[in-house]
Amino acid sequence: MGPENQSSVSEFLLLGLPMRPGQQRGFFTLFLGMYLTTVLGNLLIILLIRLDSRLHTPMYFFLSHLAFSDISLSSVTVPKMLTNMQTQQQSISYVGCIAQMYFFIIFAGLDNFLLAVMAYDRYVAICHPLHYTSIMREGLCVLLVASSWILSCGSALSHTLLLVQLSFCADNTISHFFCELTALLKLSCSDISLNDLVIFSEGVMLLFLPMCIVLGSYVRIGTIILRVPSTKRLFKAFSTCGSHLLVVTLYYGALTSVYLLSSSWDSKDIIASVMYSIVTPMLNPFIYSLKNRDIKQALETCVSRVNCFE
């Protein structure tokens, strides 16, 4: 196919969520509420961590970046989905679709790396408590977050550069609520073998490697705890790792169901995508704050300061 036909479509059509026309108002209200909860909840986490000096630790440093990534991940897809529901317009421009895919890959990848970094932080805190301060120094924390950003941006850029070389000649209907990479590749009439190879290669390195770090960290933590079992130690480990472990389970469970257990983009894939890209970012503030004494104390301090000005 000639270069002049490289991108013969000017827009794509997003079919959105699998629902009946009469259900749109209910779904619009539901997802608007979820999005506002995601933004406000994660902004509150970031604000508390910034204002309270007791939260200036590596764990909360990573959590603040995860909160920012969660806000961004939801903001890439949900506002457009809500606009389409409200206006009954399903179209998205070619450039807008590519941009949405690019930023979605960045923040989905960033979530993935930050969860691995946080698992390593919990491993050091429990398995090497006496050396925690010297190991998790400020320079290493900044380096880990910066590396997560660089790897995520590099992955997104490689997929985007390969995608824009493809041709989209006929069907421009995306059976999804956002411009997902795999769904876009299915619409191309070009050879996508290189794209598939890059997806597989990066998937092994950038998805399974962080997952292995998470699993390895918790296996090591479990081994250390069970070596000298005690109720107090088990409670301390659960209070330290419980929130992160729950988030990891939700995130990787939904992600695995999308990319490993599905053979086609049907309703179950869309539901799984909603889980890891919308529901999990919304739940994170609740999971990390409801049973977190430090966050509760920071919130109480912030509220008392506000009351002092009244």
Give an account of the 3D structure.
The chain is mainly α and 310 residues long. 75% of the residues lie in helices and 3% in strands. It has helices at 24-51, 58-87, 94-127, 132-135, 138-163, 181-185, 193-227, 231-259, 267-290, 293-308; strands spanning 11-14, 91-93, 173-174. Strands 2-1-3 form a three-stranded mixed beta sheet. Helix 1 packs parallel to helix 9 (267-290) and helix 1 packs across helix 10 (293-308).
Report on the biggest sheet: 3 strands, mixed
Portion of residues in beta strands equals under 5%
Low-confidence stretches: 1-6
Helical run tally? 10
The termini sit apart by 69 Å
- How much helical structure, as a percent, in the residues? over 70%
Largest beta sheet: strand ordering:
2-1-3
Run of helices and strands: EHHEHHHEHHHHH
Radius of gyration: 21 Å
How would you name the oligomeric state of the polypeptide chains in this document? single chain
Mean pLDDT: 84
Q: Would you report the number of β strands? A: 3
Secondary structure blueprint with pairings:
Layout: E1 11-14, H1 24-51, H2 58-87, E2 91-93, H3 94-127, H4 132-135, H5 138-163, E3 173-174, H6 181-185, H7 193-227, H8 231-259, H9 267-290, H10 293-308
Parallel strand pairs: 1-3
Antiparallel strand pairs: 1-2
Helix pairs in contact: 1-2, 1-9, 1-10, 2-3, 2-9, 3-5, 3-7, 3-8, 5-7, 7-8, 8-9
What attributes does this structure have?
mainly alpha; 3-stranded mixed sheet; disordered N terminus; 10 helices; single chain; 310 residues
